[in-house]
Amino acid sequence: MDKIHKIRKQIDRIDMVMITALAERMALMIDIGEHKKEHNIPVFQEARELEIMNRFKEVAKEQNLDENFVEEIFLSIFNEAKRIQHEIINNQEE
């Protein structure tokens, strides 16, 4: 097996771990959405999102990752999480 094939195999494995982790994270949005609906909590909580993003940007720096790259990824994740929560809140019957 040549070197690039071995590296690509590692990348493929990591990609699968990332997708599995995203699926697990998004599955929790159902519980979050139901809790927010029951307790009349708004989906978007700016202070929490900023707190999390700032923490992730610090970790990105520690890991020698570009902060903007990490921010873009997590903004997409946050947007999908909010979409799922809105769907739960707006479409489920009491």
Describe the structure.
With 94 residues, the protein is an all-alpha fold. The chain has helices spanning 3-38, 46-62, 67-91. It has one domain: Chorismate mutase (Chorismate Mutase Domain, subunit A). Helix 1 packs across helix 3 and helix 2 (46-62) runs antiparallel to helix 3. The chain is flat. 2% of the residues are buried.
The chain-level structural class is mainly alpha
List the domain count as a whole number.
1
CATH architectural designation: Up-down Bundle
Number of strands: 0
CATH fold type: Chorismate Mutase Domain, subunit A
Radius of gyration: 17 Å
Residues in helices, as a percent range: over 70%
Assembly context of the chains: single chain
User: Quick one: overall form?
Assistant: flat
Count of helical regions: 3
Question: Can you write the helix and strand succession as a string?
Answer: HHH
Instruction: Please write the CATH class name.
Output: Mainly Alpha
Largest sheet: none
Q: List segments where confidence is low: pLDDT < 50 over at least 5 consecutive residues.
A: none
Mean pLDDT: 95
Separation, N- and C-terminal Cα atoms: 57 Å
Percent of residues in beta strands: under 5%
Mind telling me the CATH superfamily name? Chorismate mutase
